[in-house]
Amino acid sequence: MSEPRKAVALISGGLDSLLAARVIQDQGIHVEGINFFTGFCVEGHTHAIRSKERAKPKRNNALWVAEQLGIRLHIIDIIEEYKDIVANPRHGYGAHLNPCLDCKIFMVRKAREWVRDHGFDFIITGEVIGQRPKSQRKATMPVIARESGADDVLLRPLCAKNLPPSRPEREGWVDREKLHDFTGRSRKPQMALAATYGFHDYAQPAGGCCFLTDAQYSHKLADLWRARGSRRYELDDIMLLKVGRHLRPRPHFKMIIGREDGENRFLHGYRKQFTHLFSTSHSGPLVLIDGEVNQDDLVLAAQVAARFGQGRDAAQVEVEVHGKDGASQTLRVVPLSSAQVPEHWYL
Amino acid sequence: MSRFELDARRMLCPMPVIRTQAKVEQLCSGDTLAVVCTDPGVKYDIPAWCRVHGHEVLAIKEHDEEITISIRVGGQ
In the annotation, is B50 catalytic? Predict the structure, then answer.
């Protein structure tokens, strides 16, 4: 008896990739999953930085999917390589800084490399024609297959019947008749299929699975690039964009202000990398300063920090400032009033 | 069979899982690995990752803000 054919499934943690993998498992194919970590992925643990979220149950949806399917899941760090996709997308951005089509091409290309290196036969994705305005359209399906180099070893089980037969179908590794013809943005066919498999507690992330589809997050990333004069970032930068209140009082420096204990605790871990300040006379946030600052800037930052603490109405607030070089000083400042913090400072 | 330790403190999930995965790939069946983390999400994610790959979680210990998860590597 010959060995079963082997497929690798791109597992995002959402319903479509769960179903696509399950449909192929049903045909006796050995399936393993890969999940790519770009740094921009939306998942519960990042939200769990905030104190009120810490008590909520947490799970990594891709791992949850793997457990439902009984498959191995390989989580792959693509943070470094992904930077170029975000900074220079050949096919441009979606509504915000989301390079969805380039992202999909890149991930399928990485999957193709993985398939080659691990002796697998083909790749499956949960794509559905018309599901997403930028990357999942009839016109983009062949673009992804071609530009990723996957060509006809890329199979989309949920919409395969609306596409030319891929190699796994032509070779008879899978039965095309048992694949699906889903189209459009409706989730009803997927939900019905999920019910037949007994999947109920699947993730339904609002706005997709990537922070780059979020308007405010993209705005903060664009600001970071503007301030640095180039489209570069490190993992810590994009993590910090998810945390705290971000204000830019001057073009050359930004403040990251913890909004509550959980965020203050998280920012505390970064204190040695940034000039940071906090009030010693009143309770208040930990504040990181991103940028090079002079003494006038520090006084302004201390006044802003005082504005967001319990001393906001006090005549004077003591603020301790620690430089990156370890030097510290105590400033006594008058907190800014609400009217003195212009709207355009907020990112 | 040897004992190893991995420092994944200050990393947010899934980075501790990714580092655990990379470390385990270098180990042999029966080796043990203690992963030290600070993100509470690891209490769910590392055991889930171990389950899908056939590794055994021996213990999860918490001390102050640190969580140590001990794993015995299964057959790879």
Answer: no
Contact B40 A74 (CB under 8 A): no
Contact A48 B17 (CB under 8 A): no
Q: CB-based contact (8 Å) between B67 and chain A?
A: no
* Chain segment A63-75, per-residue pLDDT in tens: 999 999 999 999 9
Class of domain B3-72: alpha beta
- Show which of A211, A234, A259 is a domain's final residue: A211
Q: Is residue A64 located within the same domain as residue A170?
A: yes
The per-residue pLDDT for range A96-108, each reduced to its tens digit, is: 999 999 999 999 9
Chain A touched by B61 (CB under 8 Å)? no
Q: Which domain holds residue A247?
A: 243-345
| Angle value at C-alpha A129, between A126 and A134, nearest 5 degrees | 95
Taking the model in full, what pTM does it have? 0.91
Count of CA atoms in the C-beta half-sphere (13 A) of A4: 13
ipTM score here? 0.94
Looking at chain A, the number of H-run helices and the number of E-run strands are: 13, 11
Exposure string for A307-325, b = 16+ CB within 10 A, e = fewer: bbbebbeeeebbbebbeee
State residue A142 phi and psi, 5-degree precision. -70, -30
Which chain A residues are closer than 8 Å to B52 by Cβ? 63, 66-67, 70-73
The whole-angstrom separation of Cα B15 and Cα B17 is: 5
Cis peptide bond N-terminal to A285, omega within 30: no
